[in-house]
Amino acid sequence: MIDDIAEKVYAGERISVEEGLRLMAHPNLTELGLLADTMRRRKCPEGIVTYNIGRNINYTNVCWVRCDFCAFYRPPGSDEGYVLPREEIFGKIEEMVAVGGDAPRSNEILMQGGLNPKLRIDYYEGLFSSIRERYPQVHQHCLSATEIVYIAHISRLSLEDCIRRLRDAGLDSIPGAGAEILSDEVRDIIGFRKDRVHEWLEVHRVAHKLGMHTTATMMYGHVETVEQRVEHLRLIRELQDETGGLTAFIAWNFQPDHTDLAADSSRWDRRKATGYDYLRTIAVSRIFLDNVPSFQASWVTQGPRIAQVGLRYGVNDFGSTMMEENVVSAAGTSHTNEMTLPQMQRVIRDAGYEPVRRNTRYDILN
């Protein structure tokens, strides 16, 4: 029974870690959805679901970290490794602008890659400043905490100096990628060379101090326990209490194909998380993260139908048009080809909501 937790949710009171664990174990998914939808309606305008015009750009796939859950990276020296030429990046941006128009900061590029030992701070400053000069209508939502920690390290900069220089060059906000599960115990299993939990948190803390907004993510369904999922949520909630700089939360499940982790049955039980688990996870996350305003659907991993159902389980945003996706698809699962802008709008309307375009800061544009 969760009647006592439901009373707290309806009264606008915060739930505890122990209560979050109880919700994760609750067998009635519909009841979780009702509570999550209550939180959603409290935070978000009634009757609308937002989306934005954006494009993913993976500027490099070279990465020395070799995380066992990743099928996208190529090690330094690989014949399959690449760094995109700047003109190719410009061409991808122009294709997006053709769809999104010229309104200031109305288009988003989500540009991420690997930890490439050959790319230091001057590369990123040059790239971001050239994009800002050439495409002032584009919001640069780029990199990850993991990339930024590494850029600061190899460039011999403090974290604050690194982020400030990136911001001044044109970086507008930072995605929440690289969080996976915020547990060093988990990170030691799935990517022991990655940044530590305190480093991920510190990147976002410093970015918020410098006036930038960021998002938070969770990749679940690999080696973590339910307790570690809720601990992940606790750390995000505490960060948001401290800084208020998070705009959204996005969760998706581990995509196993072609990964080293999936090939090792001693670490992963080879049971891929289901759509049922996705709905449970986002519902409990929405209830627990009472201070994060927006929740974004992961239609790339879940497909349009489960993402559509998620709109009744706490999700209020359908994310970006993306236009291309390389990281998840390298692991065998991507629904990018199923989601053009008209299809996204139709899926939202079919769920009973009005699709409304936003920018990266979640300001309504139309």
Explain the layout of strands and helices.
Layout: H1 3-10, H2 17-25, H3 29-43, E1 48-58, H4 86-100, E2 107-112, H5 121-134, E3 138-142, H6 145-154, H7 159-169, E4 173-174, H8 184-190, H9 197-209, E5 213-220, H10 226-243, E6 246-253, H11 275-288, E7 294-296, H12 299-310, E8 317-320, H13 327-330, H14 341-350, E9 354-357
Parallel strand pairs: 1-2, 1-8, 1-9, 2-3, 4-5, 5-6, 6-7
Helix pairs in contact: 2-10, 2-11, 3-11, 5-7, 6-7, 6-9, 9-10, 11-12
Describe this structure in words.
The chain is of the alpha/beta class and 366 residues long. The chain is built from 14 helices and nine strands. The protein has helices at residues 3-10, 17-25, 29-43, 86-100, 121-134, 145-154, 159-169, 184-190, 197-209, 226-243, 275-288, 299-310, 327-330, 341-350, and strands spanning 48-58, 107-112, 138-142, 173-174, 213-220, 246-253, 294-296, 317-320, 354-357. Strands 1, 2, 3, 8 and 9 form a five-stranded parallel beta sheet that branches. It has a four-stranded parallel beta sheet with strand order 4-5-6-7, covered by helices on one side. Strand 5 (213-220), helix 10 and strand 6 (246-253) form a beta-alpha-beta unit. Helix 5 (121-134) runs parallel beside helix 7 (159-169).
